[in-house]
Amino acid sequence: MKKLALHWQILIGMALGVLWGMLASYLGLVEFTSDWVKPFGTIFINLLKLIAVPLVLVSLITGVSSLSDVSRLSRIGSKTIGIYLMTTVVAVVLGLVLVNVFEPGKAFSPEKREEFKEQFASTTVEKSSDAAAVEQQGPLQPLIDIVPSNIFGSLTTNSAMLQVIFFALLFGVALIMIPADKAQPVNDFFEGVNLVILQIVDLIMATAPYGVFALLAGLVVEFAGDDPGAAVELLLVLGYYCIVVIVGLALMIFVVYPLLVTTVGKTKYKSFFKGIFPAQMLAFSTSSSAATLPVTMECAEQNLGINKEITSFVLPLGATINMDGTSLYQAVAAVFIAQAYGIQLDIMAQLGIVMTATLASIGAAAVPGAGIVMLVIVLQQAGIPIEGIALILAPDRILDMLRTTVNVTGDATVSMMVARTEGQLHPPKETTAV
User: Fold this and answer.
1) pLDDT tens-digit profile of 275-323?
2) Per its UniProt entry, which superkingdom is the organism in (predicted)?
């Protein structure tokens, strides 16, 4: 018998977790669920935290070192990275605007939000203390904090992820600058380690159905207690949260990218959309930019007429560092969780989310589940309770499919923009007609 696809397993785990939680509330098994089921959800969270630092370090080093021919393509490289960072920042800011306007986390009743806040009161107090300490520091202290004094110390805590990213960028650039014959063994080493890390992510994601079941069961019994009807409130709020994320992703695909394609790419968006559609569908079904990459390159070259020199450079780099959909989702999810726990995020905290989500997206692996790992980083950097990730894991599979579609569309958009500015775009006649 053919094995059930992982996303179906996760969806079943979600449904069974919610069902178990509600039955536990009815049958008086709340304590049993908290003691014997929820811990497996905690283990799943710990596995995600375990892999976060090595995933970012190795993925980013291999991504930067892929620019080994940067001397010949320095102009294209700087242009590509600059546009990628720009679109990512736009995505994060758009997500923050939407989540602050619609405030899905505040859709929880005040009583539930107060319960969440009390449950993690120590985290809130610690965050307030940290904020007070920051106020006494100089204006350039955040810049100082990015540069580690001891990288091995930074590698021991997920909260120092910006320092890890800084070191990985510095290491990758230095790797490009040394002689190729000396750099090759190092490149081979990190590429091998990268494959190992991605395999570990696959192993962790294989446990996702059970982890999601335990997380959802624990969340429902904690939320509902002996009142199963309260679980309905949770499901309604999650639906509201999903709508906010989907609106943001839709704005990227139907507003932001069309604007860039038509103004810079000088191409009608209907033609672009028709040409890249096969890659979008594969991205939707696999939730992996890496798995979709061969199809994305084929669509870009054959359907959109982008020169292979551009696609072979821009698209693989984009699959590594350009995660617009993931970054938008992280911004919405982070603030949603903070709102759910009654944590007020000031403008500096949200600017920190912009920076962290943007830089973390550079190191995000182009595989299913990596977005959740990156969200762990964003939450920890912003001082938001990581346990709140349980709130958004339930609908994550569907959102993962949608945000990967946005990621791939963004890669193709930037590829077209770079090709047009380099005179390397020659769309076939049949794709230019609307």
Assistant:
1) 888 888 877 766 777 667 777 888 888 889 998 778 877 887 777 678 8
2) Bacteria
For the chain, the domain total comes to 1
Residues 6+ apart with CB under 8 A from 74: none
- Residue 1 belongs to some domain of the structure: no
Cα separation, 196 vs 182, whole angstroms: 23
Residue 105: which of 340, 393, 396 has the closest Cα? Answer: 340
Does residue 16 belong to any structural domain of this protein? yes
Domain of 235 in residue numbering reads as 6-432
Contact in structure between 373 and 51 (CB atoms under 8 Å): yes
| Cα distances (Å, whole numbers) of residue 235 to 108, 224, 346 | 10, 11, 28
Q: Alpha helices, DSSP H only, in 66-140?
A: 74-102, 110-119, 121-135
- C-alpha 238/C-alpha 241 separation (Å) is 5
How crowded is residue 207: how many other Cβ atoms within 10 Å of its Cβ?
15
Q: Is residue 87 part of a domain?
A: yes
Q: What is the pTM of this model?
A: 0.64
Of 296, 288, 289, 290, nearest to 272 by C-alpha is 296
107 DSSP assignment: G
CATH number at residue 284: 1.10.3860
Task: Give tens-digit pLDDT for 229-281.
Answer: 666 666 777 788 899 999 999 999 999 999 999 999 888 888 999 888 888 88
Q: Is residue 377 part of a domain?
A: yes
d(CA 106, CA 345): 13
Q: E strands, 385-433, where?
A: none
> Pick from 281, 279, 287, 280: which is nearest to 201 by CA?
287
